[in-house]
Amino acid sequence: MSKIDWSPLCELIGAHQKVLLSCHVRPDADALGSELALAGFLRQLGKEVRIINPSVQPKGMDFLVGEHEVRHVGDGVATEDFEWAEIHIILDTSAWSQLPGLANFYRKTKSRKVIIDHHVSSDSLGADEFKDVTSPATGCLIFDLGQALNCKLTPEIATFLYAAIATDTGWFRFPSTTAYTMQIISELIRAGAEPHRIYENLYEQNNLPQLKLMGRVLGKVQSDFDGLLAYTIVTCEDFSATGTTPVDTEGLVNYCLTLAGTQAAFIAVEQRSRQVKVSFRCRTDWDVSKIAESFGGGGHRQASGAMLNGPLSSAVTKVLGKFREMFETSENSRV
């Protein structure tokens, strides 16, 4: 059970009719699944619900969206679409940097603002926060909220929440996974979630260009700091040569962490803008969220990200410097 007292939010939802849901840019399965599940719960209560995000979801998430309307900034969204809402709930982030474009609309409206999140990194968004940084996924929080609202778990909502929780726990291998996490998963399967189909839709839909990109990226993996760190890079040339885009690098950083003895990993992905998106991963003894925050990003202790200015070589040098500080600080603390 989460540490959150949901009664104030239940009262707020009960007193209003129009609810707008948003999540972070480039939504992952936890963000998108949590949104869609909460939308389902709210509609059971007779609420009017709209979903507007900072950007379109990756194609791999389209199976979750299905026939549901999920709009994004730049898709003809106007101020009126945000002014419509009495409550605006932001899910799976509490950082301004994760709300590009959408933040401008968010600041202009008088709707009651709510945050539901489990990330450590946080800004003051002027909202009522319902946050539990010990929760393995925002999907777990939405499951608890659904229970507090006395809503029903339908097969569709169960699928949304299973995808959210399974992905953010690394399919239950991350240390954030608890016995309660698995109790939730049991309830979701009982309600109709089909793990094999969800996994197939998320991870077994690669095309040939994506596999070729994977080969190029894994061929560049390097090890540093006596094997404690593994990392790789992706250039715009890699995308051109394989017919892929930055979205197709999702999850590749995790392969770096499979190298025996490795305690941390990162992937640096060159964007068309020549900025560099860096995704960080680490094992339980470390905290890469601090590295991400030093570059204006954020996330979890074991999984975080940030956007750095290019060129790529300069960004990688800066990141390596931060890892050196992290490892040296840890070594000194043990002396």
Automatic annotation (TrEMBL):
Protein EC: 3.1.-.-
Species classification: Bacteria, Pseudomonadati, Planctomycetota, Planctomycetia, Planctomycetales
Source organism per UniProt: Gimesia chilikensis
Domain DHHA1 as annotated: residue spans: 242-324
The name this protein goes by in its record: NanoRNase/pAp phosphatase
Keyword entries, A-Z: Hydrolase
A single GO molecular function term of this UniProt record: nucleic acid binding
Gene3D superfamilies: 3.10.310.30, inorganic pyrophosphatase (n-terminal core) (3.90.1640.10)
EC class name: hydrolase
Coiled coil (UniProt feature): none
DDH domain segment(s): 18-165
SUPFAM superfamilies per the UniProt record, alphabetical: DHH phosphoesterases (SSF64182)
InterPro entries documented for this protein: DDH_dom, DHH_sf, DHHA1_dom, Oligoribo/pAp-PDE_c-di-AMP_PDE
